[in-house]
Specification:
The protein is mainly β. The chain is about 0% helix and about 30% strand. Strands 1, 2, 3, 4, 5 and 6 form a 6-stranded antiparallel β-sheet that branches.
């Protein structure tokens, strides 16, 4: 049995917290990701946004399947916590603009990269 505690979610920003946080996003197809400890396993969690709060804390909004049942939920976690780990970074620069390609509302399809000929005529079919 693991002694890693499940991470605690953060409450939303409120006016009494000071200025609104700076929010950074990445393109949907090239997001960084965290690992979230939940139900005894590390769960893959693509980052929808990073929030830099005025008090100096950093929070990450992620999409995560907390129980392994393919039910994806959005959660925000203050960084760092023992139940959070870096999974991978992004090859794209983050942006503060909120355009359609960077919004966290819908998931990019997970596809394996194609290998071999991409043109059906190259395979003789």
């Amino acid at each position: 049995m693991s002694t890693i505690p499940e991470p605690e979610t953060s409450r939303p920003w409120r006016a009494e917290d000071g200025p609104p946080p700076e929010v950074w996003t990445w393109p949907r197809g090239d997001r960084p990701a965290l690992r979230v400890w939940s139900a005894g396993r590390w769960r893959y969690a693509p980052v929808m946004a990073r929030q830099n709060w005025a008090d100096g804390t950093v929070r990450y909004q992620v999409e995560v399947d907390l129980r392994g049942h393919t039910s994806i939920t959005a959660r925000t976690y203050e960084w760092p916590q023992p139940g959070l780990r870096v999974c991978h970074g992004s090859g794209s620069e983050p942006s503060r603009t909120a355009d359609e390609q960077r919004e966290g509302g819908s998931r990019a399809p997970h596809r394996r990269p194609r290998t071999g000929p991409q043109n059906p005529s190259a395979t003789g079919r």
